[in-house]
User: Which sequence fits this backbone?
């Protein structure tokens, strides 16, 4: 289908403010591609979510996200709530990590090419994942849910005033590894219970987070499953040696790392344990993470599976 009218959810605070320099260029690129653009600019995440919820019931042809994975998460939440009639989502990457775009083959540094993909209208049906917290609230996400050390690293990276961009993650990792204590986890994967002292447990709907770190390298956004990486507690020296291998995905070959796959993952810990998804803090464990097969359509190129 050809796309004509789009509602563009814009997050000028993505990349810690750097995306504000690109949002106007993104709208210009969409217009140049022949699209009528209705900007949606919320002053907070809650306001932005309400705007995109309204857009999902409008006469637009698609919702376009100008921002990063955290802003995409708001669009996924609205699409999940809208059900089968949800509008497709197009991406104009402007975030720190851009891991959703990476999983879908969307150009990260070429606004005109990304806009052309949206205008062409080819869709790829993909999975969404949801996190259900103890209070019953349900939160959709698209890439990776991080608990334990990687959640703490994300939390630390989000507070670092310098540097900007992806370099914040290795610096934050060094800081958190220096003070690391194990988390006593109880994990149930499709009814199979596991109990371990872990450094982290990550649940991936896509292979990467944090701007290309391949934490769950076998995960696919449309296979109907979630990949779970469990890193067992060990010496700080071993953990420091493991961290660089996450960029290539080679950490999965280390003896302190286990991989499992499933559709429903229940996580709890006797320690307060934060959970992050798409770079945003969602809450704390306990939580249940489930895959929602085919719950969302993205606008992608034919080469990336669009039809």
Assistant:
């Amino acid at each position: 289908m050809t796309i004509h009218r789009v509602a563009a959810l814009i997050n000028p605070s993505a990349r810690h403010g750097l995306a504000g320099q690109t949002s106007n260029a993104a709208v210009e690129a969409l217009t140049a591609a022949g699209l009528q653009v209705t900007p949606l600019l919320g002053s907070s995440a809650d306001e932005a979510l309400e705007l995109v919820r309204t857009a999902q019931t409008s006469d637009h042809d698609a919702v376009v996200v100008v921002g990063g994975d955290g802003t995409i998460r708001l669009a996924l939440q609205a699409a999940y709530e809208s059900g089968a009639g949800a509008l497709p989502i197009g991406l104009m990457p402007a975030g720190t990590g851009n891991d959703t775009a990476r999983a879908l083959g969307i150009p990260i540094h070429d606004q005109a090419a990304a806009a052309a993909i949206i205008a062409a209208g080819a869709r790829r049906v993909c999975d969404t994942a949801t996190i259900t917290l103890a209070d019953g609230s349900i939160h959709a996400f698209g890439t990776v849910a991080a608990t334990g050390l990687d959640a703490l690293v994300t939390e630390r990276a989000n507070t670092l005033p310098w540097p900007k961009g992806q370099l914040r993650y290795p610096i934050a990792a060094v800081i958190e590894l220096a003070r690391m204590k194990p988390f006593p986890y109880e994990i149930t994967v499709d009814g199979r219970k596991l109990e371990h002292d872990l450094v982290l447990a990550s649940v991936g709907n896509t292979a990467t987070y944090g701007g290309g770190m391949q934490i769950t390298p076998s995960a696919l956004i449309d296979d109907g499953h979630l990949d779970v990486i469990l890193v067992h507690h060990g010496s700080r020296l071993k953990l420091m040696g493991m961290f660089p291998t996450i960029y290539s995905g080679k950490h999965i070959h280390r003896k302190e790392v286990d991989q499992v796959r499933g559709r429903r993952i229940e996580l709890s810990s006797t320690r307060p344990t934060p959970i992050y998804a798409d770079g945003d803090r969602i809450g704390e464990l306990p939580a249940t993470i489930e895959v929602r097969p085919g719950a969302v359509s993205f606008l992608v190129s034919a080469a990336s599976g669009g039809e």
User: Anything to note?
Assistant: Residues 14-19 have pLDDT under 50 and may be disordered.
